[in-house]
Amino acid sequence: MGAGAWGLGHRIGRFLTGGAPDRKWLEAVQRQLVEADFGVAATNEIVERLSRADRVDQATLERIVVEQLGPPAAPLAHAAQPPTVMLIFGVNGTGKTTSVAKLARRLQAEGRTVLLAAADTFRAGATEQLKIWADRLSAPFVGAAQRGDPAAVAFDAVAAAMNRGIDTVLVDTAGRLHTDERLREELKKVVRVVGKRQTGAPHESLLVLDATVGRSPPRCR
User: Fold this and answer.
1) What is the C-alpha separation between 130 and 119, in angstroms, rounded?
2) Pseudo-torsion of CA 110, 209, 194, 176, nearest 10°?
3) How confident is the model at residue 4 (pLDDT cuts 50, 70, 90)?
4) What is the C-alpha separation between 64 and 58, in angstroms, rounded?
5) Nearest CA-CA partner of 219 in 104, 74, 116, 50
6) H-helix segments, 14-149
7) pTM reported for the whole predicted model
8) Was domain 3-69 assigned CATH 1.20.120.140?
9) Are 137 and 85 in contact, with CB atoms under 8 Å apart?
10) What is the pLDDT of residues 189-221, one digit of tens each?
């Protein structure tokens, strides 16, 4: 269990009584779940199920939350010959760049070495934002000047990972609407370039829909 999950369990645990749930307790749990970004629909479902439980204890809460979250996702790709290349897509404002940092931290916790690549060269401040995250994570970083070639950044990042023996490359791509033809062509170029530099790349393509409400990024195929 990660630190964030432990913190949520600790906060809710203060309200566990082992008896029947009452309105005050359910409201307290609802508030904690919302603050933890479970989302309104998921929170309401969990609280509704808790309200029907015979007793409110840690085991009951954990069982309901685990069932609500659904089966665990398949493990992230791990290329037989490193580096594993992961491309992260998403419209600006969905939390894409921050999600790259969160994913990097998760991979580091699993013992993998990570390089961050700022291939979003269109949004002002995007490269600087990812560089700050890379510094905080003590992770290598590859970027370019604003309006630079995103595909070149991705290519250089994969090459750098190969030279340094780094396990995984996370490529933050430009966030624009899917109706922008120029963006689509740029993203296709990024995919082609990393595929030429590393066999099988990209090994994962993740789409961030809305990371501000706790949604996990779906995989693109």
Assistant:
1) 10
2) -140
3) very low
4) 10
5) 74
6) 23-35, 40-51, 58-69, 96-109, 126-137
7) 0.69
8) yes
9) no
10) 999 999 999 999 999 999 888 776 544 445 555
DSSP letter (8 states) at residue 19: S
* Cβ atoms < 10 Å from Cβ of 68: 15
The CATH number for 84-213, chosen from 3.40.50.2020, 3.40.50.2000, 3.40.50.300, 3.30.465.10, is 3.40.50.300
What pLDDT sits at residue 209?
Answer: 82
Q: Which tens digit of pLDDT belongs to each residue from 76-96? A: 899 999 999 999 998 888 889
In this prediction, residues 146-166 reach a mean pLDDT of 93
User: Residue 215 corresponds to which tokens in the numbers above?
Assistant: 């949604």
d(C-alpha 182, C-alpha 150), whole Å: 12
88 vs 137: CA distance, rounded Å: 18
For the chain, the structural domain boundaries read: 3-69, 84-213
